[in-house]
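How a chain folds remains the central question behind the approach discussed here. In the encoding step, the backbone of a single protein was reduced to a row of integers, each denoting a local shape. We regard such an encoding as a compact summary of how the chain folds. The sequence in question and its structure tokens are set out directly beneath this paragraph:

___
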Amino acid sequence: MSLTQFNNETFRSINELADRFSEANPVMVFLAEYMPYALGILVIGYCLTRSNRNRLMIVFAIMSCGIAEILGKFAGLAYSHHQPFAELTNVHQLVEHVIDNSFPSDHTIIFFSICTSIWLFRRKEGVIWLLLALCVAFSRVWVGVHYPIDVAAGALIGMISSMVVYKIIPLLPFAKPLMKRYAKSDTKERVENF
């Protein structure tokens, strides 16, 4: 079985759930279309806390997201295809979307880069956000605007960029003084041992 055939068949098996379990469609539409607003509120909420560690986490998350988006653009230049609703017949398209390069999924890149950064700083609540990122990725296939390979690539790009930022930034000469300034006394040891 070729990768294209596997991708198409996997897309069909997920997208057909929109017909078989139509009562779940409003939830999937919400996840696919409106969860980025909830993520934005989360980011603002973490920034407004008095925790310098939370602010540092969001700085890392935003840097990771920016790098991931750039990597996603390069990945889109190397490989491209249109959305499933533009290429296949009988697709359950539940949300409006312009026809452009579907690879990789920007929504998935954003969610996985930010949610992985949260997980790296806050393991327990980060798991919840990673599960939410997974739900958003799944919903993008359910509503008919992405293939599974689009969301898998987006997740991989987002996660790798977050892990690289988390490991590399503290090693840069200018970063350690800034991180110490942001970090509370109970996290200074962690910053020094990054």
About this structure: The chain is about 75% helix and 0% strand. Residues 1-18+100-184 form one domain. The two ends are 44 Å apart (CA to CA). Confidence is low (pLDDT under 50) at residues 184-194.
